[in-house]
Amino acid sequence: MKTLITGLVLLLLSGGVFAQGNGKGGDEFRNTASKYETKARNARSNGHHNKARAYARMAEIKRQAARLADKGKWNQIDWTEYHRLNAEVAGHHGKGKGKGYKSH
């Protein structure tokens, strides 16, 4: 019994149960948005304007998701457009999850 309780306490203290960690709920979304903005700049400078547009929009979607997550409104985040754009930049134009597909 003591081992079970110790294990649960360690799990809780490790942060493994809490997705939000020490920061705000949307911090990871903001980090990803920054990466998409960098990808958009790089794509634009390489003449890939459609990809640049998609990455810029994905960054906007992630920032909106961050604002909602900060308020605990996780169920109001709509990933429909994000998934479509993600498939587009990955080269998967059909429906469904192709190789390299990431959830969020």
Descriptive notes:
The chain has 104 residues and is an all-alpha fold. Helix content is 62%, strand content 0%. Helix 3 packs antiparallel against helix 4. Keywords: Signal.
Provide the fold topology:
Blueprint: H1 2-14, H2 27-45, H3 49-70, H4 80-90
Keywords: Signal
Helical residues, percent: 55-70%
Series of secondary-structure elements, N-terminal to C-terminal: HHHH
Note the total helix count.
4
Rounded Rg? 18 Å
Average residue pLDDT: 79
Distance between the termini: 38 Å
**Global structural class:** mainly alpha
Largest sheet: none
Give the overall silhouette.
flat
Low-pLDDT stretches are: 6-21, 96-103
Share of β-strand residues = under 5%
The total count of strands amounts to 0
Keywords: Signal
Entry summary:
The protein has 104 residues and is mainly α.
Based on the model shown, name its key terms.
mainly alpha; flat; 4 helices; disordered C terminus; 104 residues; 62% helix
